[in-house]
Design a protein that fits this description.
The chain has six helices and ten strands. It is of the alpha+beta class. Helix 2 runs antiparallel to helix 3.
Length: 221
């Protein structure tokens, strides 16, 4: 079973270890939800998922590259690499299990992944016997030492209408193109909202540096 990190203080601490803040990741979630809900019935059926993935990838890079992370398109899979921590970050549209604090059910990607993703996730695999002894909040550096490769983390977002949930998770198994097993799941947005008290971010009209409340518009055109 995966490690599930859900308490707000644990989420904040774990994200800091991975080089991110909750506010930054919520901006990426915001971009994906807004993009999906910008689509109408006149768009191709695949447009909502593609738009969410595209805009999430863009926003992730817009935030991450000024932090020193590196854009990467190896195997035509767009990602962002933290060369210091040996981490790779990607975005994915996932199903209704996303963001639920349950070790027995795990999210799956909505669209089938190809061989390139399979190779990336295979790098996350290590000695499962050793992983069984991982501490409650396991340092990713330990997983890196077991695999000797970049460790891939996915910003997973579920969104249907006004409902959305999200997590930052590390898959270690792929079956027929779909996630089947995770090493660790960090809940960002659960059924009750973001995993932080008074979470705020810079709004589009706050050029002076003042804060505005975090809000996601999900109205359909």
């Amino acid at each position: 079973m995966p490690i599930v990190v859900a308490r707000p203080v644990d989420v904040a601490n774990r994200l800091e270890q991975l080089g991110w803040s909750l506010e930054q990741l919520l901006e990426i979630v915001d971009a994906m939800v807004a993009a999906r809900n910008s689509c109408t019935d006149n768009d191709p059926s695949a447009a909502p998922g593609w738009m969410a993935w595209k805009e999430g990838t863009r926003r992730m890079r817009e935030i991450g590259r000024p932090m020193g992370l590196v854009k990467d398109d190896t195997d035509q899979v767009p990602s962002l690499i933290d060369t210091e921590r040996k981490l790779r970050f990607l975005v994915s549209n996932t199903d209704e299990v996303t963001g639920l604090e349950n070790s027995f059910i795990q999210p799956q990607n909505r669209s089938k992944r190809g061989p390139a993703t399979d190779r990336a996730i295979a790098m996350n695999q290590g000695s499962l016997f050793e992983l069984m002894d991982a501490p409650e909040i396991a340092p990713t550096a330990r997983l890196y030492r077991l695999t000797g490769s970049l460790v891939s983390w996915y910003i997973c977002v579920y969104n249907e209408g006004e409902e959305y949930r999200a997590e930052l998770s590390c898959p270690i198994g792929l079956e027929r193109g779909f996630f089947r097993e995770f090493y660790e799941r960090i809940i960002l947005v659960g059924p009750d909202g973001p995993k932080g008290v008074g979470v705020r971010r810079l709004g589009p009209d706050d050029g002076d540096g003042s804060d505005s409340e975090f809000n996601i518009s999900v109205s359909r055109k």
